[in-house]
Amino acid sequence: MIEEKAYGMKEELILIRRALHKIPETEFEEFKTSDFIREKLNEYGIPYEVVCKTGTVATIHGKNNDKTVLLRADIDGLPINDESKFEIKSEREGFMHACGHDIHAACLLGTLKLLNEIKGTLNGNVKCIFQPAEEGNGGALPMIEENIMENPHVDAAFALHVEPLEQTGNIQIKDGPIMASPDDFKIVVHGVGGHGAYPEKCVNPLSVCAAILNKYHNVPEEYGLPCVVTICSLNGGTCRNAVPDTAVMTGTARSADKKTRKSLINILREIADNTAADMGASIEFDFNILFPPVINDASMNDIIKQSAVKLDCVKNVIILDKPSMAGDDFAYFGEKVPASYFKLGVGNVKKDAVYPIHSPKFIADEDALPIGCALMAQIAADYLDTFNA
Ligand SMILES: [Zn+2]
Ligand SMILES: [Zn+2]
Question: Whole-model pTM?
Answer without folding.
Answer: 0.93
